Amino acid sequence: MISVDTNIIVRLLTGDDKPQFKRAKALFENENIIITTSVILECEWVLRYAYHFKQSEIIIAFQSLFGLSNVQLNDPVVIADAIEWQQNGMDFADAIHLAQSKDAEAFVTFDKKFIKSALKNTSVTVREP
């Protein structure tokens, strides 16, 4: 099993560099792959800000990629929660942070928008200090 970096996934999903796209595609066709949560977080950011993907496009791309039989995630429950919460309007990075903190008594932040979104979309306690 191999683990891949953000740039491999971005090349695969965007096809913006044809030679690298072909090499990335070959990896996903021939290898068993694990994708770390940190790489997924960075991919979402790169796709949104550098490539101007819409939220719905990112979700579809991730669901297609993560549904491949040879692809594993190091924390699939966290990613599933984050994608669900993102679909309901939460920022993806905030959703990852919160999903990784579900076992904590509370997630504490100064971000009022995050608190409001978390209260609307999850059962995790999010509050100000």
Q: How are the secondary structure elements laid out?
A:
Blueprint: E1 2-3, H1 6-14, H2 18-30, E2 33-35, H3 37-49, H4 55-66, E3 71-73, H5 76-87, H6 92-99, E4 107-108, H7 112-121, E5 126-127
Helix pairs in contact: 1-2, 1-3, 5-6
| The CATH class of the largest domain | Alpha Beta
Using only C-alpha atoms, the radius of gyration works out to 16 Å
Percent of residues in β-strands: 5-15%
Give the count of helical stretches: 7
| Shape descriptor | elongated
Strand order of the largest sheet: 1-2-3
Question: What is the typical, i.e. mean, pLDDT?
Answer: 95
User: Largest sheet at a glance?
Assistant: 3 strands, parallel
Task: Describe what you observe in this structure.
- This protein is mainly alpha-helical and 129 residues long.
- The protein has two domains: 1-74, 5'-nuclease (Rossmann fold), CATH 3.40.50.1010; 75-129, no CATH class.
- The chain has seven helices and five strands.
- The strands form two sheets. It has a three-stranded parallel beta sheet.
- Helix 7 (112-121) links the parallel strand 4 (107-108) and strand 5.
- The longest helix is centred in the first third of the chain and has 13 residues, at 18-30.
- The chain is elongated and about 50 Å long.
